[in-house]
Amino acid sequence: MRAAGRAVRARLRDRIAASDPGLLRLTAGLRTVGAIALTLAVLSLLGADVHLLVAGAMAAMVATFAIREKQLGAQAVTLALGLPVALASVSLGAVLNSRLVVGDAFFVVLIFCAVYGRRFGDRGTALGLIGFQVYFLSLFVGATVSALPALCGAMALAFCSSALMRFAVVPASPTGVLLRMRLAFRARLAQLVSAQLELLDAPADEMDKALAAVREGTARLHETAMMIQDRLEEGTPDESAARLVQRRIADAEIAAERLGLLLLTARSAERADTLTLHLPGAPAPSVAGPAVPDETSATLRRDLQALHALVLRAGSGDTGTGLAHVRNRLLGYRDEENLPPASAAVQDVFRGIGESARAVLGLRIALDGPQDESDDTPATARSREELDAEDAAIDGGEEAAQEEETGLRRPTTRAAVQVAVGSSLAIVGGELLSTQRWYWAVLTCWIVFLNTASTGEILVKGYRRLLGTVFGVVAGIVLAGLVGRHTWTAFALVLVLIFAMFYVAPLSYTLMSFFVTAMLGLLYTLLHTYSLDVLVLRIEETALGAACGVFAAALVLPVQTDRRTNELLGTVLERLAEVTEAAVGQLSGGPADELLDKARDLDQALADLRGATQPLIHPVTPLRTRRHTARYVVALLETCAYHARTLAATAELLPTHPSIAADPRLRGAAGRTVRNIETIAARVADEHADVQAETGPSIASLLGSDAGTPRYGRITDRVLRHLERLDEAVVGLARPLGVPVAAPKG
Predict the structure, then answer these.
(1) How do residues 369-403 score in pLDDT, each as one tens digit?
(2) CA angle 609, 402, 249 (to 5 degrees)
(3) Can you tell me the distance from the alpha carbon of 686 to that of 682, in angstroms, rounded to the nearest whole number?
(4) Contacts (Cβ under 8 Å, ≥6 apart) of 294
(5) pLDDT digit string (tens) for 644-689?
(6) φ, ψ at 693 (rounded to 5°)
(7) φ, ψ for residue 741 (rounded to 5)?
(8) What is the spatial distance between Cα 161 and Cα 171, in angstroms, rounded to a whole number?
(9) How far apart are CA 510 and CA 501, in angstroms?
(10) Does the pTM exceed 0.90?
């Protein structure tokens, strides 16, 4: 019974870890709700009235969610600086509340300064956010000069409650967050292996569904790897340890993605080059009958289940002979041991399982230290030696400084001017709608500019906020009717809605807006100002604020969506060329480079581009051709990134892997691919550029090698396959981006 209970708890823990990497959303929700509950409890014991309770609750929420630094010391400094900012802001709000022109002018200046403060990093962003939100709070509760002492006391209590929850009750050190993210990576890796197992067993009419699950699992694993990359510097003791974890995470990610491709190839009647090439809704590759014989399929299923168990038990402290036996059998496939008689594609799947087992072993050694080697087979010992040699070769590198824009070209300055203009319009229009609650329009205008960089992004964010507000108003009406005048019931529901708001915020902005609006309906009930007219006015003010934000973004120092996406596309192509050239250079015998860092820079640039294209691919976008083009280009770039990332990881093995040797011919063979990337980048930067992409003989023929009879594990063959797929994907990019393709002369 105890063993069964432990297994259930372990599965539940893995599900939670996989759904919320690092438990960041859960931590944010618990901290915020805890800070608010503590503030309300103390204020109620002091006999505070409901206005003060609402003010304290909102201040505790702001003091908690505004802090974004990763280091605890930096968080403490920002929180300490935030209190005087909050006290000054609420005091000015109380003094200027009754002075229409002066108060409005100050609010616009405050908004400009709050947005401009983003240029000073997380601390500047947090202090600006606290200043704005607390001033808004003073307007919401109708702060007066006579009530200032009590309000300032509530503010101080709210900040103390936030500090207590952050540093004592729900602490989250960089090391702890990174540890939980590593657990999430393991859980998502296990989920991906499960999806691959379902792909193996899926009947032909369910291949679409099974393949979609593998793609989603691969994307989620990549997302977690990127999150870990962002936390490595703060969460590891030194740079060498950070680079070791980075290497092992990259190895595991690439091995898992490659295993999915090999499975897809084994099950399909056609070659599979990438999991990301197919657009959403595109049919899966056709299945040519039972591609895997029954007896081989049973063995393959057994080994995938064994790999799944190996992933889940890695890091659990289980060093029994059962685990060692499984590990040794899977690693033996790397040495061609016990490969079943089957087609080359199916045997490649077994080899891919062996490579994945090696990646899991390397991850376990990197995260948990040396392991028991008493049960090692020669194949396992060889894998350990390779990993040890790679670990010894890891060294730190320096980051290149980036050139920063100045003046109105600086994003923070431009956004500050835009939001100030938009807020001025929102104040004027909001007061025409309501002299009492005009600030809702200003709040919406402010929010649609947060974390956006183009007119299209602001338009989509405004639309989502309006949609969430409309449904939130309906929920607010229902909840207000149920609660009536039961103050503490209303506060309990407010806490539930706030937790939900923070938990879903990274997943859906529409849902977050829904919970915010529903919560406000309850707050109005607590302040005895609730009515249907008030909630309808909330919708009107929200629509007005979103429209003012879009208007300001479109007419004041505008950044058009096409321009923004072209800039980011150029960055992605530049990073792609850098990774490809550096990886091929090292594989050709050139000097070592920071290849994994370059590969992660490429991944981050691609993530930025993917976010910027959201306005182009949104379902409400009327330009269907442009929507399909944007999705196709991003899919092809994801394909290119996969092959470039794999080339970089393979090249990093070169100095230490005993079966890998440099091949000087690779540099010349990959030259056309790099030139094509640079050619496409030139056309993206200047649509009038007179350039042409090249095509011609295959990379293998340029190398003078026969790739038709590959020898698994030989570096030239592996690199050739990825270079050929990368070359094909780059040429495929030329057509949708308007670059003519011509065969080379001669």
Answers:
(1) 666 666 677 777 777 777 776 666 655 444 444 44
(2) 60
(3) 6
(4) none
(5) 988 888 887 766 665 566 777 777 778 888 899 999 999 888 877 8
(6) -85, 150
(7) -115, 125
(8) 13
(9) 10
(10) no
